[in-house]
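Researcher: We're reviewing a set of sequences before deciding which ones to prioritize for further study. For each one, I'd like a predicted 3D structure that I can look through quickly. This is Soluble cytochrome b562. If possible, include the structure in token form so it fits the rest of the review sheet.
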Amino acid sequence: MSKNMLAMLVASVCAFGAMTASAAGLSDNMKTLNANLQIVEKTDDAAALKTALTDMRAAAQSAREELPAKLKGKAADSAEVKDYHHGYDVLTGQIDEALKLTEEGKIPEAKAMAEQFKATRGEYHKKYR
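Model: Here's the predicted structure for Soluble cytochrome b562, in token form for your review sheet.
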């Protein structure tokens, strides 16, 4: 498959993911984040990278509005819920930085941000998964 066809396929799959992220549940958003993280790690195509990062951002923002089972019943202003939201704020900031790098043409640097995404995921999964 040519690189252009692959990039178009990735972009169309990611676009569909972005359309459904706002209506998705927490589990679906986690799947969207993971699938697009894999794209970020593998692609060298700026357009595909930007699409994957944009879809990750949408899924992170949508997931922020859902609470995991560990936090069900907790007050919205509880320390745990605030920390959970902070995790998504951190992730969104990291994604925004990667998007900025992508727009500047710094593809290797943007891809390297995936390690930060994984560290944030690991930290907050330990607490709330």
